[in-house]
Write a structure and sequence with these properties.
This protein is mainly α. It is built from 8 helices and no strands.
């Protein structure tokens, strides 16, 4: 019932506008500071590998796949990560503030929050997961008072047209078989 209210109610959409603006501002400013202030994730990533989150009783890694990802992909490609994180944070914030592809922006914001938490950073990440999750669950209603109001109907029409075009052209040039005749 709560999810339906978040996804369909216009008052929820108004409330979500403020939640979206707040979360978007947090992401936008974090990304902007990294873009303009020089950002290097190398130290953060090295710390995530040398001091991973481990069970205190057994010493076993809590997130072994994340530690392997950081060690085998992120660290060797730190120059790419140094570009992706600030641009990703900035675009998530911009998408949320403008209400443009709101659910996608919230999803990618959640993904980054979880990655930061897997590395052991708490900070504001749990709070942003909570409010970002609400925006994500609300889906297109979270962007009702934003660009999604105009963009989503156009995208639905475009995808429906593509789907109809694919179904229409799929049957051309084929002869019906006995099973399909």
């Amino acid at each position: 019932m709560m999810v339906q209210w978040l996804r369909e109610n216009r008052y929820a959409a108004m409330l979500l506008l403020f939640v979206r603006l707040y979360v978007g501002y947090e992401w936008l400013t974090a990304g902007w500071h990294k873009l303009t202030g020089g950002f290097d994730a190398g130290g953060f990533l090295k710390n995530a590998v040398t001091k991973p989150i481990a069970d205190k009783a057994t010493g076993e890694l809590v997130y072994p796949t994340f530690t392997a990802f950081v060690n085998n992909f992120a660290l060797p490609n730190v120059k790419l990560i140094n570009i992706l994180i600030p641009i990703g944070e900035f675009l998530v914030g911009l998408g949320l503030i403008l209400g443009c592809l709101t659910a996608a922006a919230a999803f990618f914001g959640l993904m980054m929050n979880f990655m930061f938490m897997f590395a052991g950073t708490v900070s504001t990440n749990p709070w942003l997961v909570l409010v970002g999750g609400i925006v994500f669950i609300a889906g297109t209603n979270a962007g009702k008072y934003g660009l999604d109001y105009y963009l989503m109907p156009m995208l639905r029409k475009w995808f429906a047209h593509k789907k109809d075009g694919a179904n229409h052209t799929a049957g051309k040039g084929t002869k019906p078989t006995a099973a399909h005749a």
